[in-house]
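Give me the fold.
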Amino acid sequence: MSTVRLVTVCLAAYLMFHCAEAHVANAVDMSQASVGAIGGPLPDLIVTEVTAPDEVIIGEEFTVSWTVKNQGKNMAYQPWMDRAYLAQNDPLEDPGILLATHQNEETLGPLQSYRVSLTTVVTPGTRSGAYYLVVRTDAGQAIPEADEDNNILAKLIDVGLQLRFTVTPTSDPNGSIHPDSPFTILRGFDQRFSATPDISYGVDTWYVDGLAVQTGGTKYLLSNIQADHAVHVTFKPVLGYTLKKYTFEDDEEFNEQITNNNFIAPDPNMSRIHVERTVDPELDPGGMMLLRNLTSDDPSDPDYGQVIYARAKAEFPLTGASEMLIRFEYLFSSSEPGTALLVYLSNVPDLLDHDDPASQEYEVLVAELPAPPPDRPGGAGSGRFGIFEKTVPTDILDFTSGCYMELELVEPELLQASTILAAPGLGFAAASSGGASAAVDSWGPEVHCDGICLDITWDNFVSEADFLTVVGECGSTAELGGGSGSRVCLEGAFSDDGFVDPLDVAGWDWTLGSDDRKNLCKGVPLTGDTEFAGFKAADAKISAGPMLFADAPEELSDVLIVGKRDALGVTAKLEDRLYVFDRHGQYVRWFAPSPDRYNVRLVRGPDGQIYQVNTASGVVRLDATDEALVPPGQTTFASEPRYGKFATVYVGIQGEGSDSFGRPILDAAFDRNYVYVAPVVVSPDGAEAYAVAAKLRLLDSGSPPYQVVQLYDDPPPPADNQYRNALREIEVDTDGNVYVINAHNLNESDILWRYYPDGSSERVDLGREDSDTYIPDPVAMYLSDPTNMLYLASGQYNPTDFNVTIVHGFSIDGALAAERSITIEGMQHVTDITEDPTTGHLLVVGFGMEDIPAYPNPTRYPFYFPCLAEVPYGSDSVQAQILEGSHDLALPMSIVWTATAKCGGADMDLNGSVGYADLAILAERWLDSGCYPPNWCAGADVDKSQRADVADLAILTQYWLDSGCLD
């Protein structure tokens, strides 16, 4: 607080008034003159009082008041001006910073006074410090006075920056903000805000003073506060949310909220602790719940000598959703058949006797989770949590009084402690007084996609905006946590695999092709054996629809790419075109395929023919013929591989619109006699349907025009917890070995299989993070026969650099082994791979994205762009190029090598004709092996089989004496 000082400034100057001309007095109306009679008394204006705050804040209004008195002996005739200003130096000399002016319009008689009160402000930019607040009356010296130097009065004040500001937080309905009421805060300080959405809502946008400052996020930091602010947060419906999750990181929460069947006896030796919170530094140092079956040692117990099952029960919030997903992590100590976790839903908090018939009114068994095999996640001794997920309806009980979930650990009656496999740190190796154990973590129900049917943008339409949202989320896992609340809702109609990737893009493309398909809210079922989406299989009609084909040009240059257009039009973004490029990425031309939607793969046949794999039409030959090579259809198989039963085999999507079921063909491969496709659906008599790969023999006629020759399946062990119905790509090598990949994010279900002609198989696990073959969400499988390498990439973002992707190479000589890793910079997502067989160069196509909008606008140009990388033989790092030019390719889906060698490659010496010089080269390298690109044994290995042999001689004979081989 400053000290108030009134400073009267009296100067010893002498005021002289001089009238230059004698007739001035005669020219003035003396009744209005501001001077007395010549030589008479003059008025004398002074400031007698100045009132203002001792402290004023720059930029903040305050009031200044002053009083002016005429202490002279004559009238002071108006008008004159008063001026209030700030001066840091001599108030008489410093012109100061003007605060306010007052124009006096009244005459002031001797000893009369007036008071002025004005609101003013110190303008921003003024330096803080001590100032004189000066008021000068008759500032312009409009009237002569007896004393001209006594017209000011000053008060010393402090001028400073505002030290405290008011922040006012508010929120829209459907959520709250904290802090939730206005508060003051010191200048320069920060304030953190948190938003808590209501159930089924998420944070939409944060605003400060009406301007959007952050999209999403439950936390917002208002930093370096320099003014008053209004902070506002809005909420939006979300596609998914967690009702509650128990992570067992707090002893107090565990003891208060987990009901158990622990028995505490007066004699501690008789007590049984079936359920407890425990910590394991490797599995979860934060904590988890351990369930342990123990034998009753209390002779007074009716169950004396019996193993008592562990039971744990917890309450979860109610939900208005029609379904909820039960989810938790688990790890068993035993893989003995019969060991399982039983999952109950209940509407009462107490542990009920499951044998009591009356308990059915209060609880229902919704799932039985058997202990998986020891080498699987969650299996005994694996040291890795498995994940359980199951969606259950919420109308199975009346939950108005509460919603509870119970876990019960059961086991075979004869299971002994010696059969329990140890898990370090969990005490799983029970003594003779115990039985099986299981650890549980992250226990809680979730809600996904409730109240919507594929409208993931909440604009009341299933449209291209939803399609673009899926594109923008490519490279992510399909789980809670996306901008929409749940990326599960972004999964395509036939790709429920836990990943968001180009396969989901293809699924949404297919869904948007028909209004009836937009009713497939839960995706496409494997079969129509059960009621689904309002229909039964008996009502479904199988129809592939009319088949249309492309009019392909005769010359295709080096590579052909199929992809989505870079178009401004809304529907045009979903249209496919075929783009011709040379091997260096130079654009040649485009042409339109028919159909111009749903094309997911380009495949080369044994004689150079090009085929499209279309999710609606099947395998389509890319020419002007009317040949529907593998259309959707159904056939039978006498003894399917999993159960040995008679089965119906569904190839491609069956039915129409909302009556669709099955799986589309996603990939095909050829040898000279068969077509190999994946996936197809096998529906055995009396057993659960599943997906496999199939070997088809083409027929000259019939419906369908093919016959299933072989089904490729690796029958899972009992109680297997892997998800194997997510087959997506297939390849076949020259020895007849078939390669198939499966992609699913739960329980390490990313798998590569090799099926041998003798019926045996080999598998490589791609889903284990601790392995050197970890390739989550495997995509873009390509088999290089010339180099005996199988290539794969991940459909997920590279966790170390999202602008870099890795292509992994497996040797197919002997056991499958990871031998090559290719780093491609400047490409975020790989969609397909092909190869220049003459040089061994790989051509990798994909796409990148930048400035991904939170709400994609279909009327704007795409935010994604095409990329191509050429990988020289033996190279391990390349830079991708953006495919630019006069084309409109935006989202490449597949690439295939289309160039053919002139004269079949038999012109070994490259002189333009096939003759004796070429025969001499072949003879010189006859039966040489180890032929590799780019030399290929000086060209003698014409068929790129790594050996110069009779097959190459046959090609040379076929083109003998042909010329024009270099044209």
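Residues 38 and 418 are 129 Å apart (CA to CA).
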